[in-house]
Amino acid sequence: MKKALTIAGSDSSGGAGIQADLKTFSAHGVFGMSVITAITAQNTQGVFAVQDISPEMIGRQIDAIFDDIDVDALKIGMVSVTDTIKVIAEKLQEYHFSQIVLDPVMISKSGYSLLQPEAGEALIKYLLPLAMVVTPNIPEAEVITGLHIETLADMKKAAKAIHDLGAANVLIKGGHMEDDATDILFDGEKYLEYPGRRIDTKHTHGTGCTLSSSITANIARGIPVERAVEQSKRYITTAIEHSLAIGKGVGPTHHFYELYQKAGMTDEQ
Ligand SMILES: Nc1ncnc2c1ncn2[C@@H]1O[C@H](COP(=O)(O)OP(=O)(O)O)[C@@H](O)[C@H]1O
Ligand SMILES: Cc1ncc(COP(=O)(O)O)c(N)n1
Fold it and tell me: Which residues form the Pyridoxamine kinase/Phosphomethylpyrimidine kinase domain (predicted)?
């Protein structure tokens, strides 16, 4: 069985973070493991408190996994602070691990800062160059590049700029655009467009986490990046179509093995 790891924060309401990632891994038939970087007190209405896990404990979790188990691919989500970023980068280099999907989580849908502003530079310096795929949304791509993004052409410019910072493949997500939800992938040579019609729902809690963990699961299954992203785009679209009106605010996406079948991906690998 293929094995995937998520290094991310816990979302008590189960819609984003570690919980979304593990559900997504399971839906893809991949064995899921976790390194928890922070615990959030969070629900569909907001993030109310965050407790960061110590860098030592994060390092120990990574060691415990890599000393014992062959990881096929991993994703990095919420990393909070500079020391957390540094210990993750050090450990992944120590274990010579390169099947890395980086979701540069900065601000939650509910507007809470999940990455300390001063840690942005460390994320760019230490984690971006390790990423096989990085998956910023539009506001994150704007922070990383300093560019203003309004059009597909702007997304492409930002993708190139982020590639220049050292990430091998850059996927800029179009969820925050006005009209459709087209994502752009740049691999250093060519741009690929993954068109997506905008689904009219407010229940998009955890969409970025779900997409990046789906890509991680597909990479763990040995699927090349371009096709992994294509399949994961289908998965996230189906998961948003079936999103759940749980709680009083922004509800979560739905993970179900049947969704995976519905997205037509079970015959792969
Ligand atoms: N309303 C929507 N309809 C269809 N696809 C969406 C919608 N919102 C987000 N997506 C897609 O979900 C994925 C996550 O994107 P986004 O919401 O931008 O990430 P984040 O959660 O990091 O802000 C992308 O593939 C994006 O195109
Ligand atoms: C622990 C954790 N990680 C990531 C997100 C981002 O997800 P979203 O952008 O959908 O709020 C979150 N809300 N909580």
Answer: 11-254
Is 173 labeled as catalytic in the residue annotation? yes
β-bridge pairing 100-102 and 133-134? parallel
Domain ranges in the chain are 3-134+205-262
The CATH code that applies to domain 3-134+205-262 is 3.40.1190.20
Asked casually if ipTM beats, i.e. exceeds, 0.95, the reply is: yes
The binding-site residues of ligand 2, defined as CB within 6 angstroms of any ligand atom, are 8-9, 11, 16-17, 40, 42, 77-78, 105, 108-109, 114, 205-209
Tell me the pLDDT tens digit for each residue of 179-221. 889 999 999 999 999 999 899 999 999 999 999 999 999 999 9
